[in-house]
Amino acid sequence: MDRKEKVDSIVHAEYVLPMDEGLSVVRDGAVAVSDGRIVSVGSFQEIFREYQADKVLGGNGRVVFPGLINTHTHAAMVLFRGLADDLPLKEWLERHIWPAEAKWLGPEFISDAIELACLEMLKAGITVFHDMYFFGDITGITVKRMGMRAVLGVGILDFPTMVAETSDQYFEKAEAFIRDWKGDDLIRPSIAPHALYTCGPDTLKRAKELAEAYDIPIHIHLSETQWEIGEIQSRYAKRPVHHLEAIGFLSERVLAAHCVWLEDEEIDILARRRVNVSHCIESNLKLASGIAPVTKMLKAGIRVTFGTDGAASNNDLNVLSEMSTAAKLHKAVSNDPTALDTKTAMLMATRWGAEALGLGGIAGSIEKGNSADLVVANLVRPHLMPLYDIYSHIVYSMRASDVETVMVGGKVVVEDGVFRNGDEAAILDKARKWGEKIKNQ
After folding, report:
1. Could you name the CATH architecture of 68-356?
2. CA 213, CA 78: separation in Å to the nearest integer?
3. What is the model's pTM?
């Protein structure tokens, strides 16, 4: 009898969705994991014939899919959830969010907020997020402690904040952060010039040069509101995408969040420059920013992904709900029930998200050699019965509470719905105390 190869763990499920090029579905499947990586994917019989492990996860009535990717958020803003609602973006930012940030942001706030954000995302099956904010070192340390993966964008602005007084200071801090974190196993840096209305052409060009020098992504808000379009046209006599094209900013390393107000010619430019887009449908709906032309972008060949934006404008960090809302809404606005089908939505939430962040071959798919970033969800739920199509159920019916087990880099961080890398009750208690403090300011 042949000796079985020993692996660290085997994840078994009724359905395994590798999110590979062929969008295969493995019935009664399993994934062998060792040293943080995926060793093999196949049928339950194949995997158990070739491998043995002390730890076996999942089981019947389960589905395994790659960890979800949240390509645009401001994670620490989770402590401002519900602080200011039902307002236009400009008023929401200038009268409520920016003053609150100026008053409260600091090391303790960031650490406690990131704990809460990571807890929420991990329990919703998100294993990677792309952030745009401040205090990157504290964020990185906290994310690693929580056992999550993140691409952390260092915020760049043309006006003073609590973290920098001048453009030079922003860039000095950004470059120091990039040097310190580049090569980390869980944290990757990106450069994040906030938007065209907060960063002038010289700042944007400098951000691009820094990204190219260190081979990192660029994270920026783009064409989010009609006000932004008018503002950029008044400053530069060009629409936002044309302005970025004129200054040579656009490339495949750019991930542009929102992209709501695009004309056809701008879509063509983004496609030609291979710019990645983060679609934040729930935030855009809540702020009445508009509805991005996602079906047009997809037809043009743009890699569109999902972002939640910050919990202050969403008000949650849940890619499952983003998928469901987007897949249904774009059918209605295009008057086409075939628009944004379930397999495309899953690709946007997994494989394409990883590729957009430079994590292709690491996250986003369950393939040999990739990091074992896996989600096990329970299908034995009233709202998931009966089951005809697994993609349909995940996109249209699944809830964050259906997520049972989450693995990042082969390490189990959520098991049977319980966070294993820290004291969940203590994290929630700190969040409650911050809420009381901010409310009673």
Report:
1. Alpha-Beta Barrel (3.20)
2. 32
3. 0.97
